[in-house]
Amino acid sequence: MDNVILEMRNITKSFSDNVVLNDVNFELRKGEVHALVGANGAGKSTLVKILNGIYTANSGEIFIEGKKANIRHSSDAEKHGIAFVHQELNICPDLNVAENIYVGNLVKSKLGFFDSKSTIKKAQDLIDMIQVDMKSTEKVRNLRAAEKQIIEILKALTTNAKILVLDEPTSSLNEKEKVIFTGIVNKLKSQGVSILFITHFLDDVLLLSDRVTVIKDGVNNGIFNAKEITKDILIDAMIGKSVIKCCNSRQDTKEDAKTILELQDLSSSNKFNNVNLKIKQGNIVGVCGLLGAGKTELARAIYGLDKFDSGKILLYGKPVKKVSPMIMMKKKVALVTEDRKIDGFVPLLSIRENSTLSIMDRLCSNFGFINRKQQNSVAEELSKSVSVKKSSIEQKVVHLSGGNQQKVIIARCFASKPKLFILDEPTRGVDVYAKSEIYCILSEMAAQGVAIVIFSSELDELIDVCDEILVLKKGQITESIKTINFDKNKLLAMIS
Q1: In CATH, what number is assigned to the domain containing residue 416?
Q2: To which H or E segment does residue 264 belong?
Q3: Is the pLDDT of residue 248 over 60?
Q4: Distance between CA 456 and CA 463 in Å, rounded?
Q5: What is the mean pLDDT of residues 331-357?
Q6: CA-based nearest residue to 475, from 324, 290, 279, 305
């Protein structure tokens, strides 16, 4: 026990009648990377919030370096040398990158005043160390979710923490950036830092971790040495069933298939240039690229969330004269945005209300009153179709895990029965079984004639589910490949 730096013993936590954690134990040794895994809603994030003083356990104890720790606030955790990178971003949008990285720990001059120049330089040195194309002077409001995630990681590196808690740290990183992140983790580990690593990316778990603790339905369900197990063993411990293998729509597109979406020389200054593509009925097309390639910007422009400078967007063979979200919704286009917390749902509304937002006109009488019986039935069916883990459909979405929040958003889009479905990083923060369920649903939609575009940094999944992948590089489509028998390493070389 001398090398145990953190022990969480017999932790129990409930919200009203919903028991989230039941007598859970977790142990972290000095200088190790210990992964904590489980399906969405298993209780991982709740356990971390107890460690951070955000929640108070109903019962149980926390020991740090053998001494009992009374953690009631985030400041208590910080005093014990614990730093956190949370799944949900905690940034100040109107400050620049440097100020966000060093917030609460700003560099000061000899006279005690904030030294902006030194803060910017130190932040840029950190950014350059992990080889990310980002300026420390950039306003965070202008950055994408992936770049904001990198800021959170860098922020944690500025503290002299003994324990670093990483909650889904790689969810916004592409393959190249994950390699850089792996180097950072190994460097911290060699310096004696202990890392609690929470993620749904099981390949990352096996690559980075020394040990793995599995939580299933709020209880411990196994501790494993990472080098002695396989992904299938972890999935079985997490979920108790095999990942769904579903047939996708991968087949040659019929010659007479209608073109659903066409882009003609679509351009937006400093984002993407002269993008041309055609997506036909029943196709699943993936778009991939490095951070800054223009994936999210292109997705938002197609839906009308962002303006573009020139070019045309055609739906069903006809130009869309004024592109706006309202127009696109009327034309049967649905979008899952990259940042669910900002754009995806109404936090204080229930699962019932959020999942049926896109079809309220169908659920209302001629006098404008909602048919609650029908709404309840539809919401129950939608939440079941994407396996939302919930106490009831009246549960507020803000109280769901990040992955379950994402599933509610996808369910809402399914409900609108789109003819064109655009998804930007659709499985970020979603467990491995739910990912397979989502992709099976997409495959079924494609088989029914829906055109689907997936903007994603998860190359394995794009290869598995898509008929075709477009490579976006510096705002331009440089490659178009058929995915049958295609290799991930070839795709990685194309985007790099």
Answers
A1: 3.40.50.300
A2: strand 259-268
A3: no
A4: 11
A5: 92
A6: 290
Q: Which amino acid is at 136?
A: S
Identify the domain containing residue 316 by its residue range.
259-495
Structure tokens belonging to residue 387: 């396996």
In whole angstroms, what separates CA 147 from the centre of its chain?
Answer: 13
Counting the structural domains of the chain, the total is: 2
The answer on 341 and 292 residing in a single domain is yes
* Sheet with 451-455: strands ordered across: 333-336, 420-424, 451-455, 284-288, 468-473, 476-482
In percent, the amount of the chain with pLDDT more than 70 equals 96
Q: Chain centroid to CA 81: how far?
A: 27
Distance CA 388, CA 407 (A): 6
Mean pLDDT of the region 387-393: 88
Residue 289 pLDDT = 87
Global pTM reads 0.74
Tokens encoding 9: 């013993």
Residues 172, 176, 177, CA angle at the centre, nearest 5°? 45
Q: Which among 209, 239, 269 is the end of a domain?
A: 239
Contact 191, 164 (CB under 8 A): no
Task: Give the pLDDT confidence score for residue 245 in this predicted structure.
Answer: 62
Q: If you average pLDDT over every residue of the chain, what do you get?
A: 89
Domain assignment present for 353: yes
Give pLDDT, residue 375: 96
| CA-based R_g, the chain, Å | 23
| Alpha-carbon distances, residue 20 vs 220, 402, 433, 478 (angstroms) | 12, 15, 20, 47
Asked if 298 and 275 count as a contact pair (C-beta separation under 8 A), the reply is yes
* DSSP state letters, 192-222: T-EEEEE-S-HHHHHHH-SEEEEEETTEEEE
Residues 263 and 233 in one domain: no
* CA 90 – CA 377 distance, rounded (Å): 36
- Residue type for position 491: L
Percent of the chain with pLDDT over 90: 57
